[in-house]
Recover the amino acids of this structure.
């Protein structure tokens, strides 16, 4: 430690380490503010997890008991209320629609970047514009159609709807990844006489695998979160996890620990997928506009 | 100039210039795109057309015998119905308030996270977490665990700090709209922050360093270099945020069930169609939402397009 760093004690470490140009004191204050804001934002989530592990009387105490004894009763109570079929429905709708999205979006993105069709920008922006129209305006005709063909309360209807809901996002994301595939590799494949499927499968897919994975995770999150269509188009058989959660909208006596346990359980898949896709999250949310 | 884009467009124009065989070649080129494109058209565009048709009809599932075309009656009803008018105003209020607040917060946090400090990655992860809670679950969390007047955390903290005599407001009852707005802001600030942080990190650092060496101070750099560079990103964040928030249903449904003057247009449409079964009226309201969002989304498309051109240059 040199004498100069000794003067600005707490900031010395970071200042030296990162070669700051700002005065260290304001640097420390800004870092502390950043940490505080981060804690404020994450605190409700931590509180949700903590409350889910308290007994109902402790969870409902005012002032709050931060250090009450922990129990899994909230989770036991939640799992005894029958959430497994809805969770499985959600898993099915999200996984199948995501698989379908990739199956359809991958060739489409190929036709919009590597071997582009005529007016490919128009097609891209048409796809984007469909995401900007509020889904609620198309809800009624889809409901009437499902009613007519007997697809109400059928999970496959949600699979179809979620596939279309996510296709534009996936195509936009995959297109930006495919644009990075070296042309030489594609030309070599063409010279070797490789067909479309072989080119996609053995040349393009390995290069864009990370992009494909994050697109899949983002589509999974959007499908898993969806409430409005699931609520209108399903009843008891195909009910999804968010629809099941709406059963907690009205208060029912001491049930806070159970509500928090339910919220934690239903959110876990999204948290896992979201943290896994962290770096590509912006790209997905902005339809690939921001890298 | 990237070679990928050049050679790709070169091939495309080469294909169109050719005569006979290019027709088959064009279809071969289109084939991988068609399944996805047709499906999107079928499931997103067709229902809108049907919605427009139904919006001009008297169509109520409870009175099937009275079904028929009525011209613009539904639009007149929607625009004169106090509930529908309130829903239009609430939609605008929710969207503007949520987008402005989360944009300002997101910008401040993005600026804080653009600096290097110990635990920056941890703080970034903490910031993203609210966005990764299922919206219904997040709304339940705010409704029951935070806002509840008897056992919610907000009043609990007030009692902890100010003792047993502390004020115990009924947050949702007294400020229903703000209760909904803040619950949405909590989830959307991370979104704004992520886009703006990506914008900050795409600044040309060498030019900023040069300005600093030339004696520009932090405020001058922010005002004259960072902010102009961020403009597109701020626009994009605001427009995409608006598009998502205009459509918000989960928070309104969960926190207030559309009561206390918080019903927005998506909730109004849901209610008119799902509870009242007035399909004609619901469709007219749907058409109004679409017209409203077309205005926002045209601007959004333009912004995306300018970023798109910048990147493929």
């Amino acid at each position: 430690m040199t004498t100069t760093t000794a003067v600005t004690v707490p900031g010395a470490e970071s200042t030296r380490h990162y070669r700051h140009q700002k005065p260290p004191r304001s640097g420390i204050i800004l870092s502390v503010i950043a940490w505080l804001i981060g804690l404020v934002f994450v605190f409700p989530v931590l509180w949700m997890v903590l409350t889910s592990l308290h007994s109902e009387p402790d969870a409902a105490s005012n002032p709050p008991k931060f250090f009450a004894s922990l129990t899994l009763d909230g989770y036991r109570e939640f799992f005894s209320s029958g959430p497994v079929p809805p969770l499985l429905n959600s898993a099915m709708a999200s996984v199948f629609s995501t698989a379908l999205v990739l199956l359809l979006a991958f060739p489409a993105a190929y036709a919009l970047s590597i071997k582009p069709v005529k007016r490919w920008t128009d097609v891209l922006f048409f796809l984007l514009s469909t995401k900007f129209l509020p889904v609620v305006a198309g809800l009624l005709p889809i409901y009437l159609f499902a009613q007519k063909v007997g697809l109400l309360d059928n999970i496959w209807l949600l699979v179809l709807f979620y596939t279309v809901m996510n296709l534009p996002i996936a195509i936009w994301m995959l297109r930006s990844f495919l644009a990075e595939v070296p042309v030489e590799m594609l030309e070599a494949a063409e010279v070797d006489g490789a067909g479309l499927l072989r080119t996609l499968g053995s040349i393009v897919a390995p290069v864009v695998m990370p992009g494909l994975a994050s697109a899949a995770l983002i589509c999974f999150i959007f499908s898993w979160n969806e409430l409005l269509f699931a609520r209108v188009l399903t009843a008891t058989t195909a009910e999804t996890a968010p629809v099941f959660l709406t059963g907690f909208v009205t208060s029912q006596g001491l049930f806070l620990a159970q509500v928090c346990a339910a919220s934690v359980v239903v959110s876990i898949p999204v948290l896992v997928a979201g943290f896994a896709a962290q770096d590509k999250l912006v790209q997905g949310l902005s339809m690939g506009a921001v890298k | 100039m990237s070679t990928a884009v050049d050679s790709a467009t070169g091939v495309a124009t080469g294909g169109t210039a050719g005569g006979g065989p290019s027709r088959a070649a064009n279809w071969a080129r289109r084939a991988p795109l068609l399944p996805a494109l047709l499906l999107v058209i079928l499931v997103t565009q067709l229902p809108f057309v049907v919605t427009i048709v139904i919006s001009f009809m008297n169509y109520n599932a409870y009175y099937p015998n009275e079904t028929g075309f009525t011209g613009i009656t539904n639009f007149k009803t929607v625009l004169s119905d106090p509930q529908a008018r309130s829903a239009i105003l609430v939609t605008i209020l929710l969207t503007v308030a949520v987008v402005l607040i989360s944009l300002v917060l997101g910008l401040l946090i993005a600026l804080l996270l653009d600096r290097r400090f110990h635990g920056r990655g941890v703080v970034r992860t903490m910031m993203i977490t609210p966005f990764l809670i299922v919206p219904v679950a997040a709304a339940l969390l705010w409704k029951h665990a935070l806002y509840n007047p008897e056992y919610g955390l907000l009043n609990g903290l007030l009692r902890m700090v100010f003792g047993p005599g502390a004020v115990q407001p009924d947050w949702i009852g007294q400020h229903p709209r703000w209760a909904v707005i803040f619950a949405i802001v909590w989830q959307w600030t991370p979104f704004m922050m992520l886009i703006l942080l990506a914008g900050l990190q795409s600044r040309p650092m060498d030019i900023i360093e040069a300005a600093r060496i030339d004696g520009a101070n932090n405020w001058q750099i922010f005002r004259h270099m960072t902010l102009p560079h961020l403009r597109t990103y701020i626009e994009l964040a605001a427009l995409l945020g608006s598009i998502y928030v205009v459509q918000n249903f989960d928070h309104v449904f969960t926190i207030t069930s559309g009561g206390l003057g918080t019903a927005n247009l998506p909730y109004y449409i849901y209610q008119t169609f799902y509870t009242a079964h007035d399909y004609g009226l619901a469709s007219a309201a749907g058409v109004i939402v679409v017209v409203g969002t077309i205005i926002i989304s045209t601007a959004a498309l333009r912004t995306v397009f300018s970023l798109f051109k910048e990147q493929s240059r």
Remarks:
- The beta strands of chain B are 57-58, 68-69.
- The first strand of chain B starts at residue 57 and ends at 58.
- Confidence is low (pLDDT under 50) at residues 1-19 of chain B.
- Residues 82-114 of chain B form the longest helix (33 residues).
